[in-house]
Design goal:
This protein is α+β, with helices and mostly antiparallel strands. The protein contains 17 helices and 47 strands. The chain is 20% helix and 33% strand. It starts with 6 loop residues before the first helix and ends with a helix. Bound molecules: beta-D-mannopyranose. Beta-D-mannopyranose (BMA) binds next to loops.
Length: 842
């Protein structure tokens, strides 16, 4: 059937590829990358050179036209950037040989904004969705010389406003819901408002043959009795119908399939088995094994050379188990048949201007080292770039992927739904070959908002019914249907959380966002009796490191009263909330530096209570994802790492609390219970010791034991009546030290009996010794002569310390790693502080 195809032209392909520097796209199709670009404001006469991909803010900043949007309160002075229309153009030539190809397509992805696209003066597209990619057939419009591609963006706010005005009714969330752009760019309680346009991906001209593979993945249908039933999912695009042969290899196993395809787009799945497969496991539960999967498609009639594509494929099943049980409704992930406790955090875009993390791999590896096994990509941001998911595959980090809808109700007209369906098809197809994808979630808090945030007040019944029915169409019909058709047997939930904190069921049914602490002002201790089945969000704010603020504020503004500093706090009651909580339990900060230290310590200790309570309650509770992992600018927020990736005290605490075996002491009046929670998938020998000492280190009580810790469980090891002991030593202010050892690792948690503001700490003297060079910097030992709380090594001159914010027992030696490029480090360069210093400030 394909014999009409000009074979001699295909023979040219390998030859052509030698002549064109950019001749292949990411999947190996022949392509030319367009990389000569100019830009201008629409009414300007002069075009200026720019490089892409990047956002208009970065371009203007590089040109010296604007200051960095994060500097002082620059963001507020940059609304004009979005009020204007920005035009981009590229002129390019095409060698005549390309015209022998049957087709040419312009591939436009990452157009963040609303733009009209013209090729040689002909309008070929109105792009209206930042999350989509367009392929526009354009062979007839191309010429050898002087091709002109123009991308003309309109003002996002103007588009949003105009579209919103045309709605028959108002929608909660306001104008931003009308535009398919990362929703947080319209301003969020952790983010600046920077919504102007960007081109986020390279733009290509592609030259497909008569037959192309548009995507392929290897999906896991089931795992049973050491046999994996897998499916090769193949999407093809062909001008004519035909048949061919697929040869698939998975490492050393190989499989063949005959297939036929109609003209146009086509999806087919081919089932095959692998006996005794090597499985992909989340970090902490096993190796995230990845097969090298390779397909080679041959067709005697049409293909002179086989089409070869490769992916890394993981064999695993991940199911979300939501079943009624004695308490309510479960919410846990079963991976390869094994229930897994999810440990991680919520991810937001890495940058408010450029969105994506510039170098995700080492960063995701560091999450694995913090004992993470899951992140949630939150629905108010963006779908991440491919490299991000590949790193998650490699490091065993499961991804809970929200669709990009957050805290609002969205339109339901056919045009909007069609646009969203196309976006969903593309994203589900793109991401399904990544074994890390664990769950698709329709939206962030839309259901919760609709039912409990007063959005319905004042609405007519007709409008309410209409908005709710539009919600149903999108989140209970279109999205799950597409996940079912194109996903890798993924679970789907309509919204997160299942119940908000206003409904008592939030503790017993499904996943929870518990904002009782922070938004409602409840004390941190309440986390201990507000344990849900799965905590998908809970958080508390703190200030970022001083070195981070210093990059965006002049020295004289580095003070607490600075309005410029506070313009980096986006939550309307944020500063007041931090202060109210600090006043309850912590010494009064006297300056910015002490505020940073104390706010970080409070965030770490408060959230530490939550995480400990969640892990102790396994298997009732089966996951905890703190809000929020990272920052998109140098702001004051709930993040565990600041904009530059500096770990706050919280993330140090979390990586301690997430370790595979966590021992705990629960005090119920005079009854003390010592226990452990293990996430290991095997039994391990465990040594536990509890000692009670005074602030100088004199020991009054000691209990220890050795045991075999059961896998995947929480156990109380010892219950002790302590009334007599406490009575006998009533005059002593004791400190509890819980130590444990397993798999060659020594861990400890130190318990101070009073609130930080009341602790009568003694002045610690530190001794820093044994400086040694390591592959990533240095390491040294620290000792203290007294109990020292929250010992902090100040991050300065690029030095980063792991761990930091540690508690030290007298006489104990702790090894600290320094990450740095500096060639020589001495103890004189290290500034050490502890809570004692902040209690005794002038
Ligand atoms: C959560 C998130 C965000 C918000 C955060 C803090 O519910 O989903 O919308 O930034 O609360 O308020």
């Amino acid at each position: 059937m394909l014999s009409k195809f000009p074979r001699n032209l295909l023979l040219l392909i390998p030859m052509l590829s030698q002549f064109f520097f950019n001749s292949f796209n990411a999947v190996g199709q022949l392509a030319i990358q367009l990389d000569q670009w100019e830009y201008k404001e629409s009414t300007d006469q002069i075009w200026k050179k720019c490089s892409l991909p990047q956002s208009i803010y970065s371009i203007l900043m590089n040109e010296g036209k604007i200051l960095n949007p994060y500097w002082m309160d620059q963001e507020t002075k940059l609304t004009w950037v979005d009020d204007k229309s920005w035009w981009f153009r590229s002129t390019f030539e095409i060698d005549s040989t390309w015209f022998s190809f049957p087709q040419a397509e312009l591939v436009l992805g990452g157009l963040d904004g609303y733009a009209d696209i013209f090729l040689n003066q002909v309008k070929i597209l109105s792009a209206d969705n930042s999350f989509r990619e367009w392929r526009i057939p354009c062979k007839d419009l191309l010429k050898e010389n002087g091709n002109l591609l123009e991308i003309r963006f309109s003002s996002t706010s103007l588009i949003a406003e105009t579209k919103y005005r045309m709605l028959p009714h108002l929608l909660p969330g306001g104008e931003r819901v009308m535009v398919r752009k990362p929703q947080f760019s319209f301003g969020w309680d952790f983010a600046p408002k920077l919504q102007a346009c960007a081109i986020r991906k390279k733009i290509f001209l592609e030259f497909p043959g008569l037959f192309e593979v548009s995507s392929f993945g290897v999906f896991t249908k089931k795992l049973e009795n050491e046999v994996a039933t897998l499916e090769l999912d193949l999407k093809t695009k062909s001008i004519l119908s035909g048949d061919g042969k697929i040869h698939l290899t998975m490492d050393k196993d190989s499989f063949s399939f005959d297939f036929n395809y109609p003209s146009g787009l086509h999806q087919q799945r081919f089932e095959f088995d692998i006996v005794n497969p090597k499985l992909w496991w989340p970090s902490g539960s096993g190796e995230p094994y990845l097969y090298d999967a390779k397909i080679s498609i041959t067709n005697a009639d049409s293909l002179v050379q086989p089409i070869i594509r490769t992916v890394k494929a993981g064999i695993r099943t991940i199911e979300l188990i939501q079943e009624p049980d004695d308490y309510g409704r479960s919410f846990y992930f079963k991976v390869n048949g094994l229930p897994i406790f999810a440990k991680g955090a919520n991810y937001i875009p890495a940058d408010a201007v450029e969105l994506y993390h510039p170098n995700p791999d080492p960063w995701i590896k560091s999450l694995k080292e913090s004992h993470f096994n899951m992140i949630r990509i939150w629905g108010g941001g963006t779908y991440e770039q491919d490299a991000f998911y590949s790193s998650c595959d490699r490091h065993g980090i499961m991804v809970w992927q929200d669709f990009m809808f957050a805290c609002a109700m969205y339109p339901g007209d056919p045009e909007f739904l069609q646009n969203v369906a196309a976006e969903t098809y593309e994203q589900v197809t793109r991401l399904s070959s990544h074994p890390c994808i664990a769950l698709w979630c329709g939206n962030n808090e839309n259901n919760e908002g609709w039912h409990r945030w007063g959005w319905q007040i004042g609405m007519s019944k007709k409008n309410k019914d209409r908005i709710w029915s539009d919600y149903q169409k999108l989140f209970n019909n279109i999205l799950p249907e597409l996940v079912k058709l194109h996903g890798n047997y993924h679970s789907y939930i309509e919204s997160s959380p299942l119940y908000g904190r206003g409904d008592p069921k939030f503790k017993s049914d499904g996943d929870a966002h518990d904002w009782g602490i922070w938004h409602d002002g409840l004390p941190f201790e309440d986390f201990e009796h507000r344990v849900p089945r799965f905590m998908s969000e809970a958080g508390f704010q703190s200030f970022p490191d001083l070195s981070t603020l210093r990059k965006y504020l002049p020295e004289h503004e580095l003070k607490l009263e600075s309005e410029f500093l506070l313009s980096h706090q986006k939550h309307p009651k944020g500063q007041q909330t931090i202060q109210t909580y600090l006043a309850r339990d912590y010494p009064k900060p006297t300056d910015l530096e002490s505020f940073i230290y104390l706010s970080q310590l409070m965030q770490a200790e408060g959230m530490g209570k939550a995480i400990l309570a969640h892990r102790k309650s396994k298997p009732y509770c089966m996951g905890t994802l703190y809000w929020q992992l990272n920052d998109c600018w140098p702001g004051i927020s709930w993040s565990g790492m600041d904009y530059f990736g500096n770990w706050k005290a919280l993330h140090h605490k979390v990586s301690h609390l997430f370790q595979p075996i966590l021992c705990h002491l629960t005090i119920e009046d005079d009854l003390w219970k010592i226990g452990y929670t293990s996430d290991l998938i095997y039994e391990d020998s465990l040594f536990i010791q509890l000692s009670l000492r005074d602030f100088n280190g004199n020991e009054y009580f000691n209990w220890k034991t050795k045991l075999l810790a059961g896998y995947e469980q929480t156990q109380t090891v010892q219950s002790m009546q302590m009334a007599d002991f406490l009575d006998q030593y009533r005059s002593i202010k004791w400190v509890g030290v819980l130590e444990w050892e397993y798999s060659g690792k020594k861990e400890q948690s130190i318990f101070f009996p009073q609130k930080c503001k009341d602790l009568e700490l003694l002045k610690p003297n530190f001794n820093l010794t044994n400086f040694k060079k390591t592959s990533s910097g240095y390491k040294f030992l620290i000792q203290s002569d007294k109990f020292a709380k929250a010992v902090y090594f100040r991050e300065q001159n690029g030095l980063r310390f792991f761990p930091n914010f540690i508690d030290l027992a007298p006489g104990e030696s702790r090894e600290i790693q320094i990450q740095t490029n500096q060639s020589a480090i001495g103890s004189d360069q290290i500034i050490v502080k502890s809570l004692y210093d902040y209690q005794n400030q002038p």
